[in-house]
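Sequence only, no structure available. Ideas?
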Amino acid sequence: MKAVSSNNVTRILVVGGGYVGMYTALRLQRKLKQELRQGTVEVMVVDPDPYMTYQPFLPEAAAGSISPRHVVVPLRRVLPQCRVVIGEVTAIDHSERRATLTTLAAEETGGDAVEVPYDELVLAPGSVSRTLPVPGLAEVGIGFKTVEEAIGLRNHVLGQLDIASSTRDPAVRDAALTFVFVGGGYAGVEALAELEDMARYAARYYHNIKPEDMKWILVEATDRILPEVGPEMGRYAVRELRARNIDVRMETRLESCEKRVAVLSDGSRFPTRTLVWTAGVKPHPVLAATKLPLAANGRLQCTPALRVDGVEHAWSAGDAAAVPDLTAEPAAPGGPRPVCAPNAQHALRQAKVLAENIASAVRGGPVADYRHKYVGSVASLGLHKGVAHLYGRKVKGYPAWFMHRAYHLSRVPTFNRKARVLAEWTLAGLFKREIVSLGSLENPRAEFELAAGTGRHNEAS
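Reply:
I predicted one. Tokens follow.
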């Protein structure tokens, strides 16, 4: 099936509904309001999920501080003037300005892929987890990039406490109470810190589990964690985690995790039922299928105006784009400037400039360069604990944790989400944590299959 657009309609195809994709489309709604109303412009957003995930809140969702439905933003609700298509772009022929995508309906019916013509292309598919050929990783590893993974991990950790509480086998108990996290960046450190906080609180409700019975291990291949907050705050974070009996192992790699045994490069072996992989990300594979110019890191080579370098009508930003940082000096005189870091701070601001440049280009106007000086970073180390390095100032403890929450509350999209998240934080301060594991949600038909098959609920004839 081929989709044919009218010659008098300018179609802007946005590939990806994450930070850049959603915020770009949201701003295009405002900048091109008149054209959208008249039908001379169409904005199409294609993403495999019908929502945008605000990833900085995933650790708090895993810990139960925020409801998972408040971590996501429904695309159709915030983009009423755009056409939202739930599907995945598999190929792009920019010389013909056509994208090939598969939709949910095509998967169900076995139909052909859809070809979508476009006039302006925005590539914002984000990134995917970067895995390594570690034996056993694909079988036992748990990622931490989606809300489904965050909630699944929460249920899994609480389930391990149930297993440890109900067995007398010391080997099974020890493996259930050992939690290994690989990767010392934001995702790994914040996820570990929040879940350790939650598990320590939950232990009070188990008669035979104490917080000191649990082993929490952070494995980092480099010589420091949280590099974004600077060396001093990184060292403070290590001291804070170790004070909570968390085993932080730097300059150490995961060699194998076969048969539920984590083997580290320093020779340590940890039988474990929980291995969380947060060791970096890589550009989305669709970028390699576009035949557009790529930088050495696999991201699209872009100009400061967020155009794909040397290509008309193609734009990108965020994790998918290598955008020169105009506020940073070249490493060597006359050499290329460093590129903007692939983080939320740049992505949100790039989306604003990107939308304004596209709107201006559609109207035949000039475009502007993206320029933003990195202001610093904040990271949570669990409830009431954090580190921050903002505007050259170093903050730690409760003030840093408060700044972390305040910053991300200001950045989460829509007033509706801000109000709901704030309400949940307020209620969490007044009432006790919820420590219920709902692991059965991941396989909701299991009970019915038992009843309908040869399971434990068979009735006598």
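The CA atoms of residues 31 and 356 lie 7 Å apart.
Hope that gets you unstuck.
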